From TrEMBL:
InterPro entries given in the database record: ComF/GntX_DNA_util-trans, PRTase-like, PRTase_dom
Protein name, as recorded: Amidophosphoribosyltransferase
Entry keyword Magnesium: no
UniProt entry tagged with the keyword Transferase: yes
Family affiliation: Belongs to the ComF/GntX family.
Keyword terms: Glycosyltransferase, Transferase
Amino acid sequence: MPEPLSARCPFCHRLGSDRVCGACRSEVYLDGVSALAPYGNPVVRKALQTWKYDGDREIEKVLQQWLTAGAAHITPPLAPFHACAVPLHEGKQRQRGFDQADVVAQWASGLYGIPHTSLLVRKTKTASQAKRAGGSRQVGELDGVFHIRRDVAVPEHVLLCDDVFTSGATIDAAARTLKEAGAKQVWGWVIARGR
Ligand SMILES: [Zn+2]
């Protein structure tokens, strides 16, 4: 079991709370992020990379045990939430055979006894869009990447699940899509956080 993380604003790393701080709040859509372990921990990083890139699903047992042991420390505030994954785009999921964020959402659902709902679809960026970004990350680059699935009602409180939180750009783009569709609170829930 990796050492627990200190509570910080996930975007500016200000210590004190996992909730997005007052200074960052006007810039982002997520309300906060609960994370189990530091991504800088070599054991955590290796476990996640083995899972994600080598497709080794045996490692899931270890990851799930870590989450179960740490669940009390990373319980999101203000339940009830619906667990939802930050989805891979379909091509990537086909290639990998599974979507690790969706597995994390299933675990959150089981641990907290909350519904697990697939709310989002991820579109592939076209080559021309990638070119326009000039090879560097720009504000708005992820606009329009996520869409709400047809025929789903967006719940008020969403626990947005993924394996890793680093810059937060992708998960925040997903949070934006959910909030624009009516979600009142979107809280991130990840195995590892960059800092
Ligand atoms: Zn902040």
